[in-house]
Amino acid sequence: MYAVQMRKLLVPALMLALISILPAQEKPAAPPAAPTNLKVLKLPPGADIQQIMRTFTAGLGVQCSHCHVQGNNASDENPKKEIARQMIKMTQEINGKFHDGKLRVSCYTCHRGEAEPKTAPEPKAAQ
User: Fold this and answer.
1) pTM here?
2) Could you tell me which of 97, 116, 105, 121 has the C-alpha nearest to residue 55?
């Protein structure tokens, strides 16, 4: 009799313990909002704007706030955003001259991970 009563208490207690340690089913993340105020970037359908922006930040070695107003990516208040648009146009024009469709020039081509572009190689150390 005692064993039956213990089972009636232990089984629900164990089930509750298991439920509490199992990860809750996560809701799928909502897709990011569609970008606004794109004046130069022409995105193909399904393009990942965040991945494109990550290539810019890697190419220039900067964070998003270098060109964007924090919390308002659509804002044009940061003058560096207009410079970025001019640079994007420049690379688009250069790449457009090659008819094979390959990316020949990017931010990294000149910037090499620095905010200011490299215009000449670093001098070699004297030996």
Assistant:
1) 0.69
2) 105
Distance of CA 27 to the CA centre of its chain: 21
Closest CA relative to residue 85, chosen from 109, 67, 65: 67
* Domain assignments of the chain as residue spans, ordered by start: 49-111
Burial of 107 (0-12, 13-18, 19+ CB in 10 A): buried
- For residue 34, the model assigns a pLDDT of 80
CA–CA separation, 64 vs 68, rounded Å? Answer: 6
pLDDT digits 0-9 by tens, 30-54: 776 788 899 998 888 778 899 999 9
